[in-house]
């Protein structure tokens, strides 16, 4: 099992011998039990790496050992605590609030889905905590790295790996 370690205070990610800068949530880190929807906090803890979503035409899946699929038109992720599908992938449009996965920027060209608040999801305790590409600014609660760093890490990851946010 590989542990991807994120030092939130230092803004550094380490995976084996590889280290790189990373960005976290605009509100810093917080204990997972204190995480709330929309608070901008990155939850402390160890989160299983569930799989990868890729934007077709932007990234090649070559060499991936994790389960993956292409992001499609209408793909979203529920962020509405009133939604029975809270913190789950959903199809858009939807009567509940949901984040679109086909964004105008490149941040979601690669989405590594982390197992935060998903077994089972607790409404309001945070949704869509991903490991994705950097936008050049703090995230809404995710962990992000530059494209070249992500592409270097992806082939190293496999089922059973975890991200530890400290």
TrEMBL record:
Secretion signal span: none
Pathway, per record: Cell wall biogenesis; peptidoglycan biosynthesis
Positions annotated as active site in the UniProt record: 132 (proton donor/acceptor), 142 (nucleophile)
Gene Ontology terms for molecular function: transferase activity
Domain L,D-TPase catalytic: 1-166
CDD domains: YkuD_like (cd16913)
Xref: InterPro entries: LD_TPept_cat_dom
GO terms (BP aspect): cell wall organization; peptidoglycan biosynthetic process; regulation of cell shape
UniProt superkingdom: Bacteria
Keyword terms: Cell shape, Cell wall biogenesis/degradation, Peptidoglycan synthesis
Name of this chain's protein: L,D-TPase catalytic domain-containing protein
Source species: Sphingobium quisquiliarum P25
């Amino acid at each position: 099992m590989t542990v991807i370690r994120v030092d939130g205070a230092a803004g550094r990610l380490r995976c084996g011998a590889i280290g790189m800068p990373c960005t976290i949530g605009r509100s810093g880190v917080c204990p997972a039990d204190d995480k709330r929807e929309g608070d901008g906090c990155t939850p402390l803890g160890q989160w299983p790496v569930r799989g990868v979503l890729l934007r077709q035409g932007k990234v090649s899946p070559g060499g991936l050992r994790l389960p993956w699929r292409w992001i499609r038109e209408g793909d979203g992720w529920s962020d509405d605590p009133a939604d029975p599908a809270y913190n789950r992938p959903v199809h858009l449009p939807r009567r509940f609030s949901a984040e679109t996965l086909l964004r105008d920027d490149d941040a979601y060209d690669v989405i590594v889905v982390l197992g935060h608040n998903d077994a089972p999801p607790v409404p309001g305790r945070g949704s869509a905590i991903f490991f994705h590409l950097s936008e050049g600014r703090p995230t809404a609660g995710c962990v992000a790295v530059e494209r070249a760093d992500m592409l270097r890490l992806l082939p190293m990851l496999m089922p059973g790996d975890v991200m530890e946010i400290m």
